[in-house]
Each structure stands twice: as structure tokens, then as C-alpha cells.
Amino acid sequence: MKKIVLMGAMALTVMGAKAQDFKPQLEKTFLAFDTTQDMTTKVEQSNKLSLIAKKWGNEWVTHYYLAYSKANLSYMEKDAAKRDAYLDEAEKEKEEAVSILKKENDETFVLGAMIANARMAVDPMNRWQKYGQLFSQNLESAKEVNPNNPRMYYLQGTSKYFTPKAYGGGKKAAQPYFEKAEGLYAKEAGGDITKPYWGKMETAYFLAQCKTPDKE
């Protein structure tokens, strides 16, 4: 009887170890993706995230980060059709993450807002009404779940930053959102890949830009 119990405990330990194996690889690949601005390198790391999502398909965060990478690649791509193709993949992976969670959480809502904003950016004149609304709805839903998620305010800040002043955007309009995000990022522990913490460096960059006077 003791032997059976011992074998069962060992099996659970092995299963637990296997479940944890994805974290170092996911974190390494994500950081390699997120800390470069080279398109070729980003595509390579996104492809690695795809392999990780396939190998550890039952972990929601593997699909989450793959979706995040595809949304980011869309912003960097110039061809409209390819940008939308990246976003098709991002939406698919985001929905896979939600399916595994069996519900939306604040991070998936934020990711949904990012994807909506990227869709709008492909063709702003013709898409702002539909995807602008989806962007706002996702952020409102995220706020209901967790009002202290800094990534909400980071996305709102970037949206305002790149919106023309004539339409209520610009540096001054964006600055309060980046300041709010910065304060909330300071409270995040970070370092746990299963608890998304992206956006901190970008927030610091945009906040510095907001404090720099426009050239006349």
C-alpha cells in the first residue's frame, strides 16, 4: 500500500514538473520578441512562440503571448493584407486562451482591445467606428474585472498619443493615461510570465515624449 502511495506521489511530482517546464522557455522567447525592434527577429521569435503554444496547448498564457506577438507584428507590417492576416491569427489565439480559461479575464480583454486597435490602424478612415467601439468596450470590460491593470491605461495613452489634436488626441491628452499606467506598473511585481507585465518600458518612453515640448 505504501509503495502504491509513493508511486502516486512521484507521478504527481513529475506531472507538476512537466507543467512548469514551459515557463522558462516562454519567458525567454517572449522577452526576445518584446525587446527587439528588428522585424526579422520578431518574426523568428513569434514562430518560436507558436511552437511553444503547440507543445503546451493547454496553457492559456502560451496562446496569449502568441496572440500578443501577432498583434505587434501587424503594427510593424506595411502590407494591409498581411497586417489583417496577422490579426486573424491573433484573434484565433486569443479565443483559444479564453476557451482554456473558460472565461475572459482582464488580460484577455486588454489583448482584445489591442487587436481591435490594430485592426483600426490598418485602415483608420474606414474602420474607426467599428473597431474604435470594440477597443473601448474591451477596455471597459477589463476595468470592471481589474481597475488596476496598467496595460489598460497604456493602451489608452498610445491611442490618444497617435490621435490628431483636432480629434482630441496628442501629447497633452495622452499624458494622464501614461502617468496612471506608470504608477500601476510600479506596484506590479513582474517576473512571473503567467502574469503579464508587458508595457512598462513603452510607458516610460511615451511619458518622456509627452513631457518633451513639440517643435514649432
What does this protein structure show overall?
With 216 residues, this protein is mainly α. The protein has helices at residues 2-20, 22-34, 39-55, 60-76, 80-101, 106-122, 124-145, 150-161, 171-185, 200-210. It has ten helices and no strands. Mean pLDDT is 91; it is low at 2-17. Helices cover 76% and strands 0% of the residues. Helix 5 (80-101) runs antiparallel to helix 6 (106-122).
* DSSP summary: helix tally: 10
**Uncertain segments of ≥5 residues (pLDDT<50)?**
2-17
Helix content: over 70%
**Any idea what the shape is?**
globular
Taking Cα atoms only, what radius of gyration do you get, to the nearest Å?
Answer: 19 Å
> How much of the polypeptide forms β-strand, as a percent range?
under 5%
Largest sheet: none
Structural class: mainly alpha
Order of helices and strands: HHHHHHHHHH
How many β-strands, per DSSP?
0
Mean pLDDT: 91
Q: How far apart are the termini?
A: 82 Å
